[in-house]
Amino acid sequence: MSDIPVGPGNLEIWLIPTLALRGNSLKENHSGFGGGLFYFTPMMGGFNEISASFGLNAAANLSSGLDPTIPSGGWLFRAVDRAVFQLNPQLSMMADFVLQFDNKNGNPSGTTDSSLGNTWFSIGARPVYMFGKYTGVAVEGGIDVTKAEATGSATRVLGKVTVAGLIRPAADFWARPELRVFATLAGWNGAVNDAGGAGGAAFAGDNAGATFGVQAESWW
User: Fold this and answer.
1) 114-120 long-range CB contacts below 8 Å, 24 or more apart?
2) β-sheet bridge partners, residue 34
């Protein structure tokens, strides 16, 4: 159900039952369900959307597709706040916040505590300033913090900032196609390296890195 008027905005409710039939190839034979609430409010020339989603058993991936890697008892909860503001004709911004708890691996080996799980926190923003109708600059910053369920696992932290010059057909935040020339600087702690690193082989053993490039984005 969508576009349900509530206060100044609209509410959307979704529910996905996931059925696992006997004889399938799941790791464990089980069913599950996923569901969520989305509340959309127009504001400041754009919108703010707050959502909360939950999935249990085979639907702990928040999808109608069966995931054979999720055992019975696996679950996921995710809360998201995302917004886009058109503050004036030249200045716009996107921002988001994510908080997620999950135990998609089921109970850790040797334990019976189903409350143990993974934690993920993420926050970021992208202000865009247009010098004219076609050219502008975007600055994007964000940080991710994760904590795995394994006993004694360290908290992993990664932060990054990107600066990009851009060309697009209008000043609106969503105007596309868009061509960007960007530079990104990122840093992360030792726990990220212990878990396999960030940025692939090019940054193996490092705790910071920089990337430069050209990017094009469009949709239809």
Assistant:
1) 114/73, 116/149, 117/75, 117/149, 118/146, 118/147, 118/148, 118/149, 119/145, 119/146, 119/147, 120/144, 120/145, 120/146
2) 16, 55
Maximum CA extent, the chain: 62
Mean pLDDT of 5-9: 92
Spatial distance between the Cα atoms of 212 and 78, rounded to a whole number of angstroms: 32
pTM of the prediction?
0.86
Model confidence at 110: pLDDT above 80: no
Residue 24 has pLDDT above 80, yes or no: no
Band of residue 149 on the pLDDT scale cut at 50, 70, 90 = confident
Q: H or E segment at 49?
A: strand 46-56
- Is the pLDDT at 122 greater than 50? The verdict is yes
Using only C-alpha atoms, the chain has a radius of gyration, in whole angstroms, of: 21
Q: Is the dihedral of CA 115, 118, 123, 126 positive or negative?
A: negative
CA pair distance 163, 5, nearest whole angstrom:
39
